[in-house]
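hey so i finally got around to running the thing on that chain from the lab meeting. sorry it took forever, my laptop kept dying and i had to restart like 3 times. anyway pasting the input first so we r on the same page abt which one it is
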Amino acid sequence: MIKPMPLMRRVLAPLVALPMLLAGCISNPIVTERIEPVAVTQAAHEIPSSEILDLWIQVFDPGALPEDEGEARGLSVDIRNAEARFMPIHLGKTIERSGYWGAVRVVPQGTEGAEVLVTGKILRSDAEQLELRIEAADARGENWFKRDYEHRVDTKDYTNTVRGSEDAFQPLYNKIANDLIKARAELDAKDIQRIREIAELRFAADMAPLAFGDYLLQDPDGKYQVRRLPSADDPMLKRINAIRDRDYLLIDTLNGHFDQFYRDTWTPYTDWRETRAAEAADLREVEETALNRKILGALAVVGGIALMASTKNSDSIGTQSAKTVAGELAVLGGIYAAKTGFDKDEQTTIHKAALEELGESFSQEAKPLVVEVDGETHRLTGSAESQYAQWRQLLKKIYATETGFPSRGD
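ok and heres what got predicted. didnt touch it at all, straight out
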C-alpha cells in the first residue's frame, strides 16, 4: 500500500522543482561573442604610386529588420538607412589609417570604375550586436573574399568611443581592414597594373561603349580580360579621362557631404545605441523578474490552498486555526507576488515606448544629403543612386557634345 505524501512534502515539492521550471521558462542570457581586439595593420613604408590601388566602398545594403517583434524593439527603417551610410564611411576612415591604399571613397550603389570595390549588407544591427556581410573584388572581376563579420558589445563599450575614430564595434571594422590588406598582399606589380588598366577601360566602355566596348572581354563568370589597349596619346581616351576626373570631382563632393553627415550623426547615433543597449538589458531583466514573480506567486497560492485544505484532518482546533490563517496569508502573498509580476510587464511596455521614441528622434536627425555641382543643387533623399545616375547621363552628354561621338549605339 502506497502511503500518501505528507502535507509539507506536497507543498514543498513544487518549490523544490522551481529552479528547473525557471530554467525551462526563462530564455538563456545572451553570451557575448567578440572579435578579439586588434589594431589596424600599418604600412611599414610609403607605398610607391605605381603600386597604389584606389578603394571604393559602396553605400551598404540596409538589409531587413528582424521579424520578431521583441528583437525589433526601437529599431526602424529610417535608422537602418542611416546606418547604411554611416558604417561604410567609418569603415573607409578605418581603412585609410593603414596607409596601404590610394583614394578611399564611399560611393553610391552602381558606381562604375572602381579599382577595388567593397560592398556590404547589414544582417543585424541592434546596438548590442552588429553583423555585416562584406564582399571585396577588383576591377578584373576577381573576388577577394565574401565573409560575415559579427561582434557583440555591452553598454561599457560605448564609454570607450572616440568621436570619428573609435566606434563601439571598432574590432569588427579593424578586422575587415586587415583582411583587405591581406588580400592585397597576394597581388604582384603586374596584377596591380592590370587592375588599373581594366578599371580605366571599364569606365571608358560605360561612357562610350561604341568607342571602347571592344577593348575588354567579359567571360560568363563576370571576369574581365584586356583584348587590346588604346595608345597612350589616344585623343578619345584623353577626353574620357578628363570626364573621369569630373566624375571623381562629384564623388569627392558626395564624400564631403557624407563626411558632414558622419560628423553630425556620430553623437546622436552613439547615444542612441548606448541607450538602446541599456534599455534592451533592462527589458531582459524586467521580463525575467516578472516571470519569477508570477511563478513564485502561483506556487504560493497553490501551497496556501493546500495548507487550508489539510485543516479538515486536524484533531486540534488550535492547530486547525493556525493552519487556516497561515494558508490565507500564503494565498494573499501569492496573489500579491503574481500581481507585481504583471506590473513588471507594464514596465516592459514603458521601455518599449522609450526605445521607439529614441528611434524616431534619431531618424529626424539624419537629414537628407544636398549636393551642389556647377551651381546646380541635387537633393539626395532616400539614396544617392538616382541622383548619381542622372550625373552619369550628364557626363555622357558632355562626352557626346565634345566629340560628336554618340555615347550609345541607339
